[in-house]
Amino acid sequence: MRRRRPPCFQPRRADAVTGRSPITGVVRRTGTIVILLLATFGLVPRPAAATPAAQTLNVDLYHPGVFAMQATWSWCTAASVEIMRNIVLGQADHSAADQQRFFDYMHAHDRYQIPAREGVDPQGFAAGLSHFVDARYAIVASTTYYTAVRSAVVRLRRTGLPVALLVDAGRHAWVLTGFTATADPALTSTFRVIGVRVVGPLYGRQTLHGYDPPPDSRLSVDAFRQFLLPYHFKFGPTPWDGRYVTLQPIPRRIG
To answer: In total, how many domains does the chain have?
Structure first.
């Protein structure tokens, strides 16, 4: 049985001169800024819930009631926003109406004009997270898998906020809710990530080939690597191609 791939991020090729797609007439929006952050650290932490064990630190932001299943095949990003709002604001919102509201806002802020059935692109996703969850969210496009994982857990630990993940090479969205590490990433750069905890909004609608596991599932770093893949779009280049794309809360500098 072939796995159905949710079309969460589907920009089309844009013509180099006109910006219009030769396939579907997609137009690249102008006047927008795409943030590419390649793991910058040295920022001030905010406390996050953690339970240390022997030789390890365990952090998990997930709690019962925060999970929301995506209402349509295209709304993985909207459901991820809903889940992240639930975690950050202490809510238990599962409504399709709010997912529609989040989706419409993100689709209007996409880098590319694309059909609604194709979901939203990373820029639109970042706009939605900044508007509905926390203004510090930005696109982080990492050159290696381990850099992406390390930067994600550092930002989660330092801000106490979840991280959005573009999995399946950018075709789907998950939420990073926690991790296990050999030391506290908020206090030292000398740490190794052992595992991560993730939430996928497709759970309940589909569970096939790992998409999606039960909420707050723990994956080893090696297992997670088969899901967090370099961003790729077969119709043409984007600013995020070949990078591991996450949407992280960037701590503000003091002073």
So the answer is: 1
